[in-house]
Amino acid sequence: MPVNSLNNRGINVRTLSGKRKFTEIFQKGKKLFFDSGYVVFLTLSEKNQGAIYLGTIVRKKLGNAVERNRARRIIRETLRNIIRTEGGKGAFAIIFILNKVEIDSMEIKKVIQRVFSDISSHSGEKAN
Q: pLDDT (tens digit, 9 = 90+) per residue, 44-67?
């Protein structure tokens, strides 16, 4: 799965691909809603430690390819910036499902930070 791998402080951000993997995350993952859509995330096993898998779903009805790809780039770059500044711990998969292509990087940043806090709080519960 190392299609699009970027190394940020030892953490690999990889592109999530394959219907089976998307289906597994949708079935087992936790949903978090925001203005432009929702996000599904799932904590992965220890063997994937240090890897973050990112998937983005944008329907064709929402805009042309340029607008859809711009939304994907904003999400990807916001995730990279958060990992560089705050660091990302653990391994997880995250899928953004957008209902509109006009997204704000600040909104995405808040969503990703909330996902990170949810993941860290759940991993703290497992350790106890």
A: 876 666 788 899 999 888 888 999
Distance in angstroms (rounded) separating the CA atoms of residues 60 and 64: 7
CA nearest to 79, candidates 22, 41, 121, 46: 41
- pTM metric for this prediction: 0.80
What would the CATH number be for the domain defined by 6-123?
3.30.230.10
How many residues belong to the chain?
128
Q: Which residues contact 106 (CB under 8 A, 6 or more apart)?
A: none
The CA distance from 73 to 48, in Å, is 24
Taking the domains of the chain in order of start, what are their residue ranges? Answer: 6-123
